[in-house]
Backbone:
Protein backbone atom coordinates (compact mmCIF):
# COMPACT_ATOMS: atom_id res chain seq x y z
CA UNK A 1 0.00 0.00 0.00
CA UNK A 2 1.30 3.42 -0.93
CA UNK A 3 1.69 5.56 2.20
CA UNK A 4 0.57 8.81 0.61
CA UNK A 5 0.37 10.57 3.99
CA UNK A 6 4.14 10.58 4.31
CA UNK A 7 4.48 13.48 1.90
CA UNK A 8 2.68 15.66 4.43
CA UNK A 9 5.16 14.93 7.26
CA UNK A 10 7.20 17.89 8.49
CA UNK A 11 10.93 17.88 7.62
CA UNK A 12 12.89 15.73 10.04
CA UNK A 13 9.96 13.53 11.07
CA UNK A 14 11.02 9.90 10.44
CA UNK A 15 8.82 7.73 8.26
CA UNK A 16 9.47 4.69 10.43
CA UNK A 17 10.41 4.20 14.09
CA UNK A 18 11.72 1.25 16.07
CA UNK A 19 9.14 -0.08 18.51
CA UNK A 20 10.56 0.02 22.05
CA UNK A 21 10.61 -3.34 23.80
CA UNK A 22 10.70 -1.96 27.32
CA UNK A 23 7.66 -2.01 29.61
CA UNK A 24 6.26 1.28 30.89
CA UNK A 25 7.96 1.01 34.32
CA UNK A 26 11.26 0.24 32.57
CA UNK A 27 10.88 3.41 30.51
CA UNK A 28 10.42 5.37 33.75
CA UNK A 29 13.57 3.71 35.14
CA UNK A 30 15.48 4.83 32.05
CA UNK A 31 14.21 8.41 32.35
CA UNK A 32 15.12 8.53 36.05
CA UNK A 33 18.62 7.25 35.30
CA UNK A 34 19.26 9.62 32.39
CA UNK A 35 17.54 12.72 33.77
CA UNK A 36 17.30 12.26 37.56
CA UNK A 37 17.14 15.97 38.39
CA UNK A 38 14.85 17.03 35.56
CA UNK A 39 11.30 18.05 36.43
CA UNK A 40 8.80 15.27 35.73
CA UNK A 41 5.58 16.82 37.09
CA UNK A 42 4.43 20.31 38.06
CA UNK A 43 1.22 20.56 40.06
CA UNK A 44 -0.05 23.71 41.76
CA UNK A 45 3.51 24.96 42.00
CA UNK A 46 4.88 21.70 43.46
CA UNK A 47 7.45 19.78 41.43
CA UNK A 48 8.67 16.19 41.34
CA UNK A 49 11.87 15.18 39.58
CA UNK A 50 12.17 11.95 37.64
CA UNK A 51 14.20 10.50 40.51
CA UNK A 52 11.48 11.39 43.02
CA UNK A 53 8.68 10.18 40.77
CA UNK A 54 10.42 6.85 40.22
CA UNK A 55 11.03 6.44 43.95
CA UNK A 56 7.34 7.07 44.69
CA UNK A 57 6.36 4.54 42.01
CA UNK A 58 8.67 2.03 43.74
CA UNK A 59 6.99 2.75 47.07
CA UNK A 60 3.51 2.28 45.63
CA UNK A 61 4.60 -1.00 44.03
CA UNK A 62 5.67 -2.12 47.51
CA UNK A 63 2.31 -0.92 48.90
CA UNK A 64 0.44 -3.00 46.33
CA UNK A 65 2.54 -6.07 47.18
CA UNK A 66 1.97 -5.53 50.93
CA UNK A 67 -1.78 -5.66 50.28
CA UNK A 68 -1.41 -9.07 48.64
CA UNK A 69 -1.73 -7.97 45.02
CA UNK A 70 0.58 -8.83 42.15
CA UNK A 71 0.57 -10.13 38.61
CA UNK A 72 -2.90 -9.95 37.09
CA UNK A 73 -4.48 -8.03 39.98
CA UNK A 74 -6.61 -5.01 39.10
CA UNK A 75 -5.97 -1.61 40.68
CA UNK A 76 -8.45 1.24 40.11
CA UNK A 77 -7.19 4.84 40.17
CA UNK A 78 -10.04 7.29 40.76
CA UNK A 79 -8.11 10.56 40.66
CA UNK A 80 -7.94 13.75 38.60
CA UNK A 81 -4.72 14.70 36.81
CA UNK A 82 -2.27 14.84 39.70
CA UNK A 83 1.15 13.50 40.78
CA UNK A 84 -0.60 10.75 42.77
CA UNK A 85 -2.20 9.44 39.58
CA UNK A 86 1.18 9.25 37.84
CA UNK A 87 3.15 7.38 40.49
CA UNK A 88 0.27 5.11 41.48
CA UNK A 89 -0.15 4.20 37.79
CA UNK A 90 3.51 3.34 37.30
CA UNK A 91 3.76 1.67 40.70
CA UNK A 92 0.80 -0.62 40.06
CA UNK A 93 2.26 -1.58 36.68
CA UNK A 94 5.64 -2.22 38.29
CA UNK A 95 3.96 -4.71 40.64
CA UNK A 96 2.52 -6.53 37.63
CA UNK A 97 -1.04 -5.24 38.08
CA UNK A 98 -3.51 -3.97 35.52
CA UNK A 99 -4.70 -0.39 36.07
CA UNK A 100 -8.29 0.78 35.70
CA UNK A 101 -8.36 4.59 35.35
CA UNK A 102 -11.72 5.89 36.61
CA UNK A 103 -13.22 9.23 35.67
CA UNK A 104 -13.50 11.36 38.85
CA UNK A 105 -16.62 12.99 37.36
CA UNK A 106 -18.51 9.67 37.37
CA UNK A 107 -21.65 9.47 39.49
CA UNK A 108 -21.96 6.56 41.89
CA UNK A 109 -23.76 4.13 39.58
CA UNK A 110 -21.22 4.70 36.79
CA UNK A 111 -18.25 4.11 39.07
CA UNK A 112 -19.88 1.04 40.63
CA UNK A 113 -20.42 -0.51 37.20
CA UNK A 114 -16.83 0.08 36.14
CA UNK A 115 -15.34 -1.32 39.36
CA UNK A 116 -17.56 -4.39 39.21
CA UNK A 117 -16.99 -5.02 35.50
CA UNK A 118 -13.19 -4.65 35.78
CA UNK A 119 -12.83 -6.77 38.91
CA UNK A 120 -10.89 -4.02 40.71
CA UNK A 121 -9.51 -5.22 44.05
CA UNK A 122 -8.28 -1.91 45.44
CA UNK A 123 -9.00 1.71 44.53
CA UNK A 124 -7.07 4.93 45.07
CA UNK A 125 -9.42 7.89 45.41
CA UNK A 126 -9.59 11.45 46.71
CA UNK A 127 -10.71 12.05 50.27
CA UNK A 128 -13.69 14.06 49.03
CA UNK A 129 -14.96 11.00 47.11
CA UNK A 130 -14.36 8.54 49.96
CA UNK A 131 -17.96 8.36 51.26
CA UNK A 132 -19.26 7.44 47.79
CA UNK A 133 -16.50 4.89 47.18
CA UNK A 134 -17.05 3.34 50.62
CA UNK A 135 -20.73 2.79 49.80
CA UNK A 136 -19.72 1.05 46.57
CA UNK A 137 -17.15 -1.06 48.41
CA UNK A 138 -19.89 -2.48 50.61
CA UNK A 139 -21.70 -3.75 47.50
CA UNK A 140 -18.69 -5.32 45.75
CA UNK A 141 -17.05 -8.27 47.53
CA UNK A 142 -13.97 -8.19 45.28
CA UNK A 143 -13.19 -4.55 46.19
CA UNK A 144 -11.19 -5.13 49.35
CA UNK A 145 -9.47 -1.83 50.11
CA UNK A 146 -9.92 1.90 49.55
CA UNK A 147 -6.81 4.10 49.64
CA UNK A 148 -7.53 7.80 50.08
CA UNK A 149 -5.36 10.79 49.32
CA UNK A 150 -5.82 14.54 49.55
CA UNK A 151 -5.51 16.73 46.47
CA UNK A 152 -3.11 19.13 48.22
CA UNK A 153 -0.42 16.55 49.10
CA UNK A 154 1.92 17.79 46.36
CA UNK A 155 0.98 21.47 46.29
CA UNK A 156 3.84 23.94 46.69
CA UNK A 157 4.10 25.25 50.26
CA UNK A 158 2.32 28.58 49.74
CA UNK A 159 -0.42 27.02 47.60
CA UNK A 160 -0.98 24.33 50.20
CA UNK A 161 -1.36 26.95 52.93
CA UNK A 162 -3.86 28.97 50.89
CA UNK A 163 -5.86 25.85 50.04
CA UNK A 164 -5.93 24.73 53.66
CA UNK A 165 -7.12 28.10 54.91
CA UNK A 166 -9.90 28.16 52.32
CA UNK A 167 -11.02 24.53 52.44
CA UNK A 168 -10.15 22.94 55.77
CA UNK A 169 -13.68 23.28 57.17
CA UNK A 170 -15.49 22.06 54.08
CA UNK A 171 -16.87 18.55 53.75
CA UNK A 172 -14.53 16.14 51.96
CA UNK A 173 -11.22 17.70 52.94
CA UNK A 174 -11.00 15.66 56.12
CA UNK A 175 -12.70 12.29 56.48
CA UNK A 176 -12.52 9.40 58.90
CA UNK A 177 -11.58 6.19 57.09
CA UNK A 178 -13.33 2.94 57.97
CA UNK A 179 -11.60 -0.25 59.04
CA UNK A 180 -9.48 -1.84 56.33
CA UNK A 181 -8.97 1.39 54.42
CA UNK A 182 -5.82 3.55 54.41
CA UNK A 183 -4.34 6.96 53.69
CA UNK A 184 -1.98 6.83 50.71
CA UNK A 185 0.76 8.89 52.39
CA UNK A 186 0.73 6.59 55.44
CA UNK A 187 1.21 3.54 53.22
CA UNK A 188 3.96 5.21 51.20
CA UNK A 189 5.84 6.16 54.39
CA UNK A 190 5.38 2.68 55.85
CA UNK A 191 6.78 1.01 52.73
CA UNK A 192 9.75 3.32 52.20
CA UNK A 193 12.88 1.23 51.64
CA UNK A 194 11.02 -2.06 51.28
CA UNK A 195 11.81 -4.48 48.46
CA UNK A 196 10.15 -3.53 45.19
CA UNK A 197 8.44 -6.38 43.32
CA UNK A 198 9.86 -7.03 39.86
CA UNK A 199 7.55 -9.54 38.15
CA UNK A 200 8.39 -10.86 34.71
CA UNK A 201 6.11 -8.56 32.72
CA UNK A 202 6.62 -8.00 28.99
CA UNK A 203 5.48 -5.44 26.42
CA UNK A 204 2.56 -7.80 25.70
CA UNK A 205 1.39 -7.83 29.35
CA UNK A 206 -1.94 -6.14 30.07
CA UNK A 207 -1.30 -2.66 31.41
CA UNK A 208 -4.65 -0.92 31.45
CA UNK A 209 -8.39 -1.35 30.99
CA UNK A 210 -9.43 1.95 29.43
CA UNK A 211 -13.21 2.33 29.41
CA UNK A 212 -14.95 3.87 26.42
CA UNK A 213 -17.34 6.79 26.74
CA UNK A 214 -20.37 4.51 26.48
CA UNK A 215 -22.18 6.71 23.94
CA UNK A 216 -23.86 3.65 22.38
CA UNK A 217 -24.57 1.85 25.65
CA UNK A 218 -22.64 1.03 28.80
CA UNK A 219 -18.92 1.75 28.64
CA UNK A 220 -16.64 -1.15 27.70
CA UNK A 221 -13.08 -1.74 28.81
CA UNK A 222 -10.49 -1.63 26.04
CA UNK A 223 -7.41 -3.68 26.90
CA UNK A 224 -4.11 -1.86 26.41
CA UNK A 225 -0.75 -3.62 26.73
CA UNK A 226 2.58 -2.11 27.76
Residues:
Amino acid sequence: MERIWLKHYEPGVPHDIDEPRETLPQLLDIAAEKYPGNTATIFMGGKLTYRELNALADRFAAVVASLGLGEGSRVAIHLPNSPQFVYCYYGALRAGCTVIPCNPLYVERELEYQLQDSGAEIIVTLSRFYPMVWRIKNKLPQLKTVIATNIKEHFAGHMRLLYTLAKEKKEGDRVDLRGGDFWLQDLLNKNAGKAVPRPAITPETEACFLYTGGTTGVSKGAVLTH
Remarks:
- The CA atoms of residues 11 and 155 lie 40 Å apart.
- Confidence is low (pLDDT under 50) at residues 158-163.
- The longest strand covers residues 206-211.
